[in-house]
Every structure is written in C-alpha cells, then in structure tokens.
C-alpha cells in the first residue's frame, strides 16, 4: 500500500541526486546556453553584452572552425569503422577456445586503462622524426616521415593512436555481446552444415546488431569529442597548419586562450546538435534494418 | 517504520547538502581586515617552470617574511595552463592577492579592468617607477595607469657552438644575414644543422622588424605589409628549404631549438637566457658563446623583451601589505636573488650593471634590451601570434607557395 509518507520518503531519497545533477550538470548547461548568445569573457562576466545569433553565425564564416569540423569528421570516419572491425575481430579471437585467452584479454584491454596523456607521450616518442617508427622504416628502406609535423600524416598518426587506445574497451563490450548469443543457434547451424563463415555472417553478426549499434554510437560520440590526444601531441597548438585541430580543442582555445567564452559555448551547442543529429539518423537506420 | 525511513532520508539529504555547501566556502580565510599585530595571509599565484626558479622565489619570500613577521605568504603554483586557471578565479573573485601576469596577456586584463591600478599605492609606498627599465614598465601600462611591476625580463640572442665553429673553420660568429647564411651552410654536415629556429613569431620577429616589417601598429594588425615577407622568405624558405642549412626543432626531433643546441644537433640558435641553465644541466662541457642577433645589411638591430609582472587583485583585502610584498619582490633586495639565480635579467636599471659584472659573457642580452620591443600586441596578442606562427610554418611545410600567400591567410584569420 502506498501512502503519502512513502512518496515523500521516495522523493527525499532521490533528492540528493536531483540536486547535484541540477547544480553540476543542468545548471551549467543552461548557463552555457545563455552565454552562447552573449559576447562573454570569463575575465569580466559583468561586462557581457547581448549578441543575439552573432556567435552562431560566426561559426559558418570562421575558417578555423570549418577546418576543425572537417578534421573531426575525417578523424571519426577513419577511426570508427576500423575500430569496430578490429574490436570485433579481437573479441572473436579471445572468445574462441585458445590457450592463454585471459592473457590476451588483459593485454588488449590494457591501453584502455592507460591515461591518454601517457599514451600520447609514448606515441610522440614512437613517431618522432628520429623515433622508433622511422628507425624501423629506414631499416626496411621505406621512406620515413616527420609524422606529427607533416600535413598529410599528422591526423592519420593520431587516428592510429586512438584506435590502439580504445579498441580494447569495445572488444570487451563485443565479448559480452558474443556470450549472450545462445549456443543452440550455433549447434542448429552446425547440424544444417553451415560453414564457420556462414555462422559468423548469419548468426553472430545479426545477433550482435544491438551491440554494434551501441558501439557505433559510443564511438562516434567519442571521436567527435576528442581532445586530450590532440592537445598533448600538438602542445596545445593544433598541429601543423591546424591539421589536428578538432572542434573541442578549438572550443577550448577560444574559451581559455582567446577569452571568448560566448563563441566557445556556441561551438559546444553546435557540436551537441551535430552529435544529436548523427545519433537520430543511426537510430532510424538501424530500426529500419531490424524491421 | 514509516517515520524511521523519513528520518533516514532526511539524514542522507542533509549529508549531501553539507558536502555541497562545504565546496563553496573555502576562501573565507582572508576576509577580516588585520590590525598591526594580527597575522594576515597573502596569497601569491604563479607558475613554477623549474626547481631553480622555485628556489629563487622561496628565498625572496623568506626575505620578505623576516622583515614582516605579521605577514604569512603562501605561494600557490598553477600546474598546467595558467590562464585557464586564472580566469575562473577572477570571475569568482577568488584570485590570489598577487599573481604573475605575462606582458603578452596583460592588455586583455588591463582593458577589462579586472586588475587593480597601482599608481596611488606605489606613491604611498614610495616606489619609483623610473627605477625600472622603461620597456618593462610600459608593458603593464594602459590609459596612463600602471597595473603591475615587472619581476624580471629576457631578450633574445644568438647562441653559437664554439667547437663546431672551429671545426668548420669559422673564426667569428655571424653579424649579418649573409654571414648567417654562409656560416650555416658551412656548419651543416655530419648530422649537424647550421641554424635552428622554431616557426614562431617570438623567435623570428627581430629579423622581420630588421627588414622593415611590422605586425602590429596603432592597435591594428599589419600582417600583409610587404616588408614582412623578407625575413620569413629568408629564414623559412631560403635557409630551410633551399639551402637546407637550417631547420625547425621538430625536424631535428626536438621540442625546442635550445634542446637541439644543447645536444649539438644545431650549431646556432636564437633563444633567451633561459637556455643557459638548460645547457648547464644537459651538456655541462659544451663550449658556446652568446652574441647579439645578426642584423640585415644596412638595417637597424631589433629585439624583443619577454617580461612577467606581479599584478594586484581587485578583491584583495590587504592591498597595502600586498604592495609591500610586490615592491620587495621586484625591488633591489628581491632582484638581487634574481641576479644570483641567473635565469633572467633584473628589471631595475641599476641592477643591470650587477648582472653584467657577474656575467660579462651575457652582455648581448642587456645590449639587446636597449633596442627591444615588448612581446605584446594589444588585446589581439593570442590570435596574432598564432596566425603568424602558422604563416611561417606554412612556408616551411610547403602548405603555402610563399610568405606572401601565407601572410594573406594569416591576416584573414584574425579579422
């Protein structure tokens, strides 16, 4: 039986979370929305003036923002499919009955729990002009590049790093998905004489669809919000000719280097809209496929 | 039963609320105005770039404390991005009483009026601005008001590796652009690059100004001025791409030119006196000389001053004591320690001589100061420097055909 008292107790219990969410999440988001319509500097909040849509219109004319958005999209396009393919492959491997699979699981997962900054510094040493990668390439008589300082290779080098770092996390999610697939399906398929490839194509892949959808969305959101690798590798500058400048990185620069918090907030909301749009499209696409 | 759960819920809520409130009431300790014998605390904000620098500041603060026993001084170093931390502190009125302010970022702070003008306080405490180097004073003045006292400064000079010069048969360091170019060619061999300079305005600006260029005049960016192309083309196209006798540090696998110099990968670099302790630590046996920057044939010399001041918080509850501390840290007693430390040059004119007696081989830095411009470009500093860095980089990397095209793009970026 439910009484008014029970209801009050319930609300009291959720109150701490509601209050902290309101104070630390919803409040700041609303405030950022407010700021995005103002010429606003963090140095002197009381001197803010109303800007209308100025900050948002500026986004379309700012070559650096367009470059940042282009870089981010390219990064996402490169990282997401490769990441998903490798994660699935690794999950299939460590799910198979092989010796020492626990060790492999740990090894593949390790980069995920390593700090991004540490990983970035490590990759900087690997890809330095006189670093290990170039050393190996030159031994094999393959032309070498100044990776992070090259217009062509700076972004791909960061992509490789991102894939290496995050693939373990998605592997674990796929692994959970794989273990959810009922064993009977495989047994039935075997009775029908299905080849291993057919089993993968017609059982594993369709059964993993919800997992793939989840990973796809997480991966796209993650790649669109990329910041730390870029920041560390370009020393806060955006790389050669802004080739590794991403939206969040540019947002940070606008807010804390150019003192333009209003414009930075507008960028944040633009990014939010882009991610929202991408997610809606994927949802629709996946729903239609399952129907 | 029911009552009990209400009480539990209430307790849980109040616990969280206390935790939340606890977060916001941290800064109450400097609230009360102090009488003479009451102990007060002054907070000083800054960054700490090396243990040597930190030790110097500790010594300075200890000196002040022994003269002012009623004042406790707490240094709060910022790790990471200083301006990122300072901005929200100022917005929430919790910034330290005194804090470091780089000349390069100062115009934004002065124009927004978020730091305290100190002219009246300086007069009251008998601090004479004319004791300080003019360029260092001007860097922290806006609309006839003074906003800070410079703690030290640096200028640029040419460092050259004496051993490599001897090996290449060069008897004296280059004084002109032609000599720089010729010497760099002779020095470039056996894994050594003749000259290394990063693609950054605060390194190549002296060359750009020697050739008659300007990047900032009367509050406006003048990046597309045709004279600006000369130096960029000379260093980043002619020397780096055509002669291959110069390189940016990244090409040499280094983060900055000074490190390439310390490892004898570059025979000449343009840096400030901050390179001296780095070389001493990394390659103590390296023999090198420091001379004034090479000057374009028939042109006037040019240099730049990098300086950091102490600024006074508008919200400080102890402005008089804070000015005393500022005057001490930047005064003769404080800067005596700066001279001894040798990381930077003293901003008090008189002490420049002490510096020279102690380090006669560093004369080039003091000489350079006499014709230097402050590293400051009004409120557009960050954008302007960024655009100019990218412009020179575009020439090195071949992203733009020449300096003219690169500068044209740079100008559009800051509008």
Key descriptive features of the protein:
heterodimer, A: 291 residues, mainly alpha, MetI-like fold, two-stranded antiparallel ribbon, 13 helices, B: 415 residues, alpha/beta, D-Maltodextrin-Binding Protein, domain 2, 2 domains, 6-stranded mixed β-sheet, 5-stranded mixed β-sheet, 15 strands, 16% strand, globular, signal (chain B), transport (chain B), Carbohydrate ABC transporter substrate-binding protein (CUT1 family) (chain B)
As an assembly, this protein is heterodimer
Helix-residue proportion of chain A: over 70%
Q: What is the total number of structural domains of chain B? A: 2
Task: Quote the beta fraction of chain A.
Answer: under 5%
Point out poorly predicted stretches of chain B: 16-35
What would you say about this model in short?
Chain A contains 13 helices and two strands, in the order αββαααααααααααα. By secondary structure, chain A is an all-alpha fold.
Any overview of this molecule?
The complex is a heterodimer of chains A (291) and B (415). Chain A is mainly alpha-helical. Chain A has 13 helices and 2 strands, in the order H-E-E-H-H-H-H-H-H-H-H-H-H-H-H. Chain A has helices at 4-35, 54-61, 63-95, 101-113, 116-127, 132-139, 154-180, 183-191, 196-207, 209-224, 228-233, 247-256, 261-290, and strands at residues 38-39, 49-50. Chain B has 415 residues and is an alpha/beta fold. Chain B has 2 domains: 39-154 and 306-374, Periplasmic binding protein-like II (D-Maltodextrin-Binding Protein, domain 2); 157-304 and 377-413, D-Maltodextrin-Binding Protein, domain 2. Chain B contains 18 helices and 15 strands. Chain B has helices at residues 2-24, 51-67, 82-91, 106-112, 119-124, 134-138, 162-167, 177-187, 201-210, 228-242, 257-262, 275-282, 319-330, 332-341, 349-358, 363-369, 381-397, 403-413; strands spanning 40-46, 71-77, 98-102, 141-142, 145-146, 148-154, 157-161, 193-196, 216-217, 220-221, 246-247, 266-271, 288-291, 303-312, 372-374. In chain B, strands 1, 2, 3, 6, 14 and 15 form a 6-stranded mixed β-sheet that branches. Chain B has a 5-stranded mixed β-sheet with strand order 11-8-12-7-13. In chain B, strands 4-5 form a two-stranded antiparallel sheet. Chain B is globular, with a radius of gyration of 25 Å. The model of chain B is unreliable at 16-35 (pLDDT under 50). Chain A binds chain B through residues 3, 5-6, 8-9, 12-13, 15-16, 19-20, 23, 41-45, 47, 63-64, 128-131, 146, 148-151, 235-237, 240-242, 256-259, and chain B through 2, 5-6, 9-10, 12-13, 15-17, 20, 81, 83-84, 87-88, 90-91, 108-109, 112-114, 248, 250-253, 255, 382-383, 386, 389-390, 393-394, 397-399, 412-413.
């Amino acid at each position: 039986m439910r009484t008014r008292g029970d209801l009050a107790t319930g609300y009291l219990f959720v109150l701490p979370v509601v209050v902290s969410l309101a104070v630390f999440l919803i409040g700041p988001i609303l405030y950022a929305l407010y700021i995005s319509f103002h010429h606003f500097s963090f140095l002197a909040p009381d001197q803010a003036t109303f800007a209308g849509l100025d900050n948002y219109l500026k986004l379309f004319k700012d070559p650096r923002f367009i470059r940042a958005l282009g870089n981010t999209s390219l990064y996402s396009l490169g990282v997401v499919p490769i990441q998903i393919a490798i994660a699935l492959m690794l999950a299939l491997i460590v799910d198979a009955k092989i010796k020492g699979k626990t060790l492999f699981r740990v090894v593949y997962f390790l980069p995920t729990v390593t700090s991004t900054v540490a990983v970035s510094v490590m990759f900087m040493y690997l890809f330095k002009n006189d670093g290990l990668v170039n050393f190996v390439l030159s031994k094999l008589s393959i032309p070498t590049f100044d990776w992070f300082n090259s217009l062509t290779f700076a972004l791909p080098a960061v992509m490789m790093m991102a894939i290496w770092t995050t693939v373990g996390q998605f592997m674990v999610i796929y692994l959970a998905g794989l273990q959810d697939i009922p064993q009977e399906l495989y047994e039935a398929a075997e009775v029908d004489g299905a080849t291993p490839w057919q089993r993968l194509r017609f059982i594993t892949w369709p059964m993993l669809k919800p997992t793939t959808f989840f990973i796809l969305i997480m991966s796209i959101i993650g790649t669109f919000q990329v910041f730390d690798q870029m920041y560390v590798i370009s020393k806060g500058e955006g790389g050669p000719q802004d080739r590794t400048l991403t939206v969040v990185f540019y947002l940070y620069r606008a807010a804390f280097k150019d003192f333009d918090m209003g414009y930075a907030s507008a960028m944040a909301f633009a990014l939010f809209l882009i991610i929202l749009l991408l997610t809606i499209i994927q949802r629709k696409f996946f729903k239609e496929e399952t129907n | 039963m029911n009552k009990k759960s209400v009480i539990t819920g209430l307790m849980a809520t109040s616990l969280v609320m206390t935790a939340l409130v606890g977060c916001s009431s941290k800064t109450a300790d400097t609230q009360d105005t102090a009488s003479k014998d009451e102990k007060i605390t002054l907070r000083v904000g800054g960054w700490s770039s090396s243990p040597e620098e930190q030790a110097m500041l500790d010594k300075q603060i200890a000196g002040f404390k022994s003269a002012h026993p009623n004042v406790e001084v707490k240094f709060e170093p910022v790790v990471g991005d200083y301006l990122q931390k300072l901005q929200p502190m100022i917005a929430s009125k919790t910034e330290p009483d005194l804090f470091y302010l780089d000349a390069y970022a100062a115009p934004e702070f002065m124009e927004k009026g978020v730091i305290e003008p100190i002219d009246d306080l300086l007069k009251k405490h008998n601090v004479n601005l004319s004791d300080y180097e003019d360029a260092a004073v001007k860097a922290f003045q806006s609309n006839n008001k003074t906003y800070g006292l410079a703690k030290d400064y640096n200028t640029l000079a040419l460092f050259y590796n004496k051993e490599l010069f001897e090996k290449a048969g060069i008897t004296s360091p280059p004084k002109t652009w032609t000599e720089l170019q010729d010497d760099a060619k002779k020095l470039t061999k056996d894994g050594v690059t003749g000259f290394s300079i990063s693609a950054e305005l605060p390194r190549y600006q002296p060359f750009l100004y020697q050739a008659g260029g300007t990047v900032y005049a009367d509050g406006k960016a003048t990046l597309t001025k045709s004279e600006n192309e000369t130096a960029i083309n000379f260093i980043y196209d002619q020397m780096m791409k055509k002669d291959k006798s110069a390189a940016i540090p990244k090409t040499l696998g280094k983060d900055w030119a000074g490190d390439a110099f310390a490892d004898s990968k570059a025979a000449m670099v343009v840096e400030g006196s901050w390179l001296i302790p780095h070389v001493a630590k990394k390659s103590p046996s390296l023999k090198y000389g420091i001379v004034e920057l090479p000057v374009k044939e028939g042109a006037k010399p040019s240099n730049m001053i990098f300086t950091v001041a102490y600024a006074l918080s508008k919200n400080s509850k102890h402005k008089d004591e804070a000015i005393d501390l500022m005057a001490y840290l930047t005064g003769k007693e404080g800067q005596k320690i700066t001279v001894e430390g040798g990381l930077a040059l003293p901003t008090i004119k008189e002490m420049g001589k002490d510096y020279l007696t102690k380090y006669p081989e560093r004369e080039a830095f003091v000489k350079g100061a006499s014709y230097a411009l402050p590293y400051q470009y009004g409120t557009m500093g960050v954008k302007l420097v960024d655009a100019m860095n990218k412009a020179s980089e575009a020439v090195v990397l071949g992203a733009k055909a020449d300096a003219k095209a690169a500068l044209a793009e740079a100008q559009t970026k800051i509008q």
